[in-house]
Amino acid sequence: MRQKIYKREDAIAYAKKWAYSRNPQYYNFDPVGGDCTSFISQCIYSGSQVMNYNQYGWYYKNGNNKSPSWSGVEYLYKFLTQNKSIGPYGREVGLEQVEIGDIAQLSFDGKTYGHSLLIVETDKSNNLNKTLIATHTIDAYRKSIGSYNFKNIRYIHIDGVRY
Length: 163
Known about the structure:
Elements lengths: L2 E2 L3 H11 L17 H13 L11 E3 L2 E2 L1 H4 L1 H10 L4 E7 L9 E5 L7 E7 L10 E4 L4 E5 L7 E11 L1
Antiparallel strand pairs: 1-9, 2-3, 4-9, 5-6, 5-9, 6-7, 7-8
Helix pairs in contact: 1-2
């Protein structure tokens, strides 16, 4: 397999364009539980341009033919942090290692993670109020992570893309 760089700026440009609307190429999952992780996958795809069509991969063909990792919070985490095959891959990091184009996931109950966000701006002071995100479901662009009421947060740094 070959490696390529994850184009963080392309992921951010996609997020900026579609944060407050829906790309008609993708199903809107808002009526069936939320569109946040599908939107984050769209952003990651914009920066990677590679999908993984394996049984436990990360892909989207249509609303009825997609991997669980495309639209499920826990499944996206598992795919990105365990992927040894084609597509984007990463690892869980602390806020101090986060870059634009990385992912944050929130747990509101302290047990399960239920919301995915794309980091669009970081601040090296590790201030949550200066770390800005884009997301769907409750649409936002350049919203402070610190403005959310959550119990736990985790960050996924995307290390690269295999193809």
